[in-house]
């Protein structure tokens, strides 16, 4: 259901704090998702340029961006969202399914320790953090089907102390929740959360759950999803999207949001987009 926002209603952005990792060692050397093709050349220089523009876009929008140092031998470390979920200052780390990415989790854990965080939990079950977890302000949407173990959802509820709703992904092109759904505005006491998602990425039961939880959601098209439009980042007003996601951006503008476009074409070769590069730190 598409509902236009009233003319006199203005979306209000909230200042965010993000953790990012530069793609200094970016490469596509293995295949752990359908987007990766090691036979296709990639440019570290272009990846760094695109990542830098994304980082600078956040800063222009008034957000704080902190950086963790990239490590050699970990070409996917740029996708910081996969290494931690932070809600109310509690940190739930990650445990990767692919052995090629396993070492990333410890580097991010150390970053949190070095920056004064003490309530840190490292999961026992496979848990790819904000790749499969989306905080709505009241509850945590939790994806499974390709990466994160369903049992990790219970671990997240215990570690973060927030209610968790499980959602099943069924299309391998949308292997993480953050490739198929993102939160436009978090829930408050005065208003429910708003989300945008691609229905066909989810099982029939999960589609029914999303319809009940978010009857006013923006339902994206396949074209939106295939350009990583569902890997967007919103501050409640400004929505950072891939440059190709103009159709989705137009529909979000009808709801009162302000689309902000960035080029992530090189990063997409590894199956990542704006959100994949962006871990949100909620204190």
TrEMBL record:
<protein>
    <submittedName>
        <fullName>N-Dimethylarginine dimethylaminohydrolase</fullName>
    </submittedName>
</protein>
<dbReference type="GO" id="GO:0016990">
    <property type="term" value="F:arginine deiminase activity"/>
</dbReference>
<dbReference type="GO" id="GO:0019546">
    <property type="term" value="P:L-arginine deiminase pathway"/>
</dbReference>
<keyword id="KW-0378">Hydrolase</keyword>
């Amino acid at each position: 259901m598409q509902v236009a926002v009233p003319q006199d209603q203005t979306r209000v952005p909230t200042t965010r704090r993000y953790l990012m990792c530069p793609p200094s060692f970016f490469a596509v050397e293995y295949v752990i998702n359908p987007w990766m093709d090691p036979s296709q050349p990639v440019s570290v220089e272009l990846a760094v340029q695109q990542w830098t523009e994304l980082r600078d876009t956040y800063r222009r929008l008034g957000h704080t961006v902190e950086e963790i140092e990239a490590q050699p031998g970990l070409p996917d470390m740029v996708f910081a969202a996969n290494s931690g979920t932070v809600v109310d200052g509690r940190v739930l780390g990650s445990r990767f399914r692919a052995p090629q990415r396993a070492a990333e989790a410890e580097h991010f854990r150390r970053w949190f320790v070095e920056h004064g965080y003490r309530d840190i939990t490292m999961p026992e079950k496979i848990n790819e953090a904000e790749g499969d977890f989306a905080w709505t302000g009241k509850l945590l949407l939790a994806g499974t089907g390709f990466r994160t173990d369903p049992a990790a959802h219970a671990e997240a509820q215990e570690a973060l102390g927030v209610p968790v709703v499980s959602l099943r992904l069924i299309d391998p092109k949308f292997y993480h929740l953050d490739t198929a759904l993102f939160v436009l505005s978090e829930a408050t006491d005065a208003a429910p959360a708003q989300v945008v998602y691609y229905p066909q990425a989810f099982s029939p039961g999960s589609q029914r759950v999303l319809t009940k939880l978010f009857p006013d959601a923006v339902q994206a098209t396949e074209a939106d999803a295939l350009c990583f439009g569902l890997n967007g980042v919103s501050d409640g007003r400004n929505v950072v999207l891939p440059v190709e996601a103009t159709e989705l951006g137009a529909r979000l503008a009808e709801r009162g949001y302000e689309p902000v476009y960035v080029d992530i074409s090189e990063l997409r070769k590894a199956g990542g987009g704006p959100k994949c590069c962006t871990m949100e730190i909620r204190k």
